[in-house]
Write a structure and sequence with these properties.
heterodimer; A: alpha/beta; Peroxisomal Thiolase, Chain A, domain 1; globular; B: 208 residues; alpha+beta
Chain lengths: 374, 208
């Protein structure tokens, strides 16, 4: 028997809201944080992205903006949980793709700066802020980082090494990141359209998310992290698999780990970046795993692609959807533009099934899937 | 399920101009800079893989270490693609290449440099080369945390998520580089040693 792993508390900290409840309310109302920006510090051209208001972070001395949003997100989740952070049974896991890389743009390049940029430095500062006793764990595995962080936490609790895991993910958008996606011609000239026939690229977004997991039986009755899987395409470092077979492997592994079958799944929270290749591959994978008829959504037109935070933010939104018995729609989607006839949710719908599947894929050919449920 | 005993089937350490396999020195080239050293390793071992030339130094280092590690150790057909995976860690993420990409932004941002601004790309390169499709993860650690790696890999092997796993450390920043990779499996082959944090640290410390 696998130990049961419960969701204790969570937070979403994005331009769309500072708590999970506020974010969820805005999503139900069909709001998006993506708008056009003219910001010469980030790009020579105007661009669409979901960014925090600059005024929200007037000072970046002890903690950078990246660290401030992680701290804000963890603070809210911890307050709900009542967890004692100095408990030796609690582990802190941080997920990010690029963390403080933006410091390269404003600071002198010295060995001290390079140490300051490292994700270990951020994890240490944040752990000290909250008084976490154990060595923090840092995941940096491209766009699946958030899902990998949750899977890592779930397993550390399953084996009994820890009892509680505080898992936070975040990324902020710098010229470094924006110019890279521009150079790949991956950015949409407007608000992105996941799975749509006219989809034309992704938007980037900023945000943080925190989920607190526990194996303590006192949380019995809460939604659980049920199973996870990770795979590699072994095909191309910047383009996804043509067949989707490898993401399908990760989905099947997660379903097996969760001991569930297709009929148990209420909806799929897809990666759905709205790039031509990602959505086509993802639809192939979902069909290969027999989940073609299960409603799926992508939140990328609400949040943009929040990189190392995406797996966390989108999982937490979906946990909230389960609690509310609804499936959220895919903003920006009008007409299916992928080969397989996946069931892209267009409007908010009721659902009574108790589990959902979250998928993610990224550069390096990485794929991940996780199942949550009751 | 009782935990199975797992073994380090082979190891490779590359640092300070030296290449070790299973503790034996196979190559030394102290005079060269990083770029030249990595190419010298590639040539010394008679490797022939055109993708090598376009990789960043982190991927080159990790890929070379994996080639030495797997040579005569893991044969094609030993495992299904999804039965082999990787758990890697380092200190400096992809900063070595991030600095090069950053320099390109002022002129024309280079997509071929940008793709290497993630530490897990080295995992992707090794998977492409050897057709590994199993679980993988990349962690950032201030120093090599062998105990953490041991727990992660044993979870994957004991739960039959993987049958073999390449794990360890691949780190590079400017002229400072170190790779220490381990092939871990369930068979007690000739020369295999028990897979433990202690044994990993002993191999890791063969070179500073």
């Amino acid at each position: 028997m696998k130990r049961e792993i419960f969701v204790v508390a969570d937070n979403i900290f994005t331009p769309l809201g500072k708590t999970t409840a506020e974010n969820f309310e805005n999503l139900k109302q069909g709001k998006s944080a993506i708008k056009q920006h003219h910001n010469a510090a980030l790009s020579r051209q105007p661009f669409y992205a979901a960014l925090f208001d600059k005024k929200e972070f007037p000072k970046e001395d002890r903690y950078t903006k990246f660290e401030q949003i992680v701290i804000a997100s963890i603070t809210d989740a911890l307050q709900q949980s009542g967890l004692n952070t100095s408990d030796e049974k609690t582990v802190f896991i941080l997920s990010s793709t690029k963390g403080n890389i933006g410091l390269l743009e404003t600071e002198t390049h010295t060995p001290e700066l390079f140490d300051r940029i490292s994700l270990s430095a951020s994890a240490k500062l944040i752990a000290e802020y909250f008084g976490f006793k154990n060595q923090p764990i840092v995941v940096s595995n491209a766009c699946i980082s958030g899902v990998v962080a949750i899977i890592t936490g779930m397993r550390l609790l399953r084996t009994g090494q820890y009892e509680n895991a505080v898992i936070a993910g975040a990324d902020v958008i710098s010229e470094f990141i924006l110019s890279g996606f521009e150079s790949f011609q991956a950015l949409s000239p407007g608000v992105c359209k996941p799975f749509d026939k006219d989809r034309d690229g992704l938007n980037l977004g900023e945000g943080a998310g925190t989920i607190i997991l526990s194996s303590n039986p006192k949380y019995a009755g809460n939604i659980k992290a049920l199973g996870g899987g990770i795979s590699n395409d072994a095909n191309h470092i910047s383009g996804p698999s043509r067949t989707g077979k490898e993401l399908s492997l990760a989905i099947d592994q997660a379903m097996k780990d969760a001991d569930l079958s297709i009929g148990d799944i209420s909806f799929i929270s897809a990666h759905g970046t709205a790039t031509s290749y990602n959505d086509e591959m993802e639809a192939n994978a979902i069909a290969l795993s027999g989940l073609e008829s299960v409603p799926l959504n992508s939140l990328k037109a609400n949040y943009g692609h929040t990189l190392g935070a995406a797996g966390l933010i989108e999982s937490i939104v979906s946990v909230q959807s389960l609690k509310d018995h609804v499936v959220l729609p895919t903003m920006g989607f009008e007409e299916r533009g992928v080969t397989r006839s996946v069931n892209v949710a267009k409007s908010i719908a009721a659902s009574s099934k108790p589990n959902f599947l979250k998928t993610a894929s990224g550069f390096g050919g990485c794929n991940a899937a996780i199942v949550f449920g009751k | 399920m009782p935990p199975q005993i797992t073994y380090i089937t082979s190891s490779c350490v590359i640092s300070q101009g030296i290449v070790l396999k299973d503790g034996k020195q196979l190559f030394e080239n102290k005079a060269a800079d990083v770029q030249a050293f990595l190419l010298a390793v590639y040539q010394h071992f008679g490797l022939n893989y055109s993708k090598f030339y376009k990789m960043d130094n982190l991927s080159k280092l990790g890929w070379l270490a994996s080639e030495v590690l797997l040579d005569n150790t893991l044969k094609k057909g030993d495992y299904q693609p999804e039965e082999v995976g990787l758990v890697l860690a380092n200190r400096n993420s992809s900063l070595d290449n991030d600095l090069k990409y950053f320099d390109s932004i002022k002129d024309i941002p280079s997509p071929s440099l940008f793709v290497y601004t993630l530490p897990n790309i080295v995992i992707g390169e090794i998977c492409i080369r050897s057709h590994f499709k199993g679980e993988h993860a990349f962690y950032i650690q201030e120093n090599f945390d062998a105990g953490f790696i041991e727990n992660q890999v044993n979870y994957l092997l004991n739960n039959n998520i993987l049958q073999a796993c390449i794990c360890g450390w691949v780190d590079i920043l400017a002229d400072h580089y170190k790779a220490a990779l381990f092939l871990v499996g369930k068979q007690n082959n000739d020369g295999a040693i028990p897979f433990s944090a202690e044994n990993m640290n002993a191999v890791f410390n063969q070179l500073t």
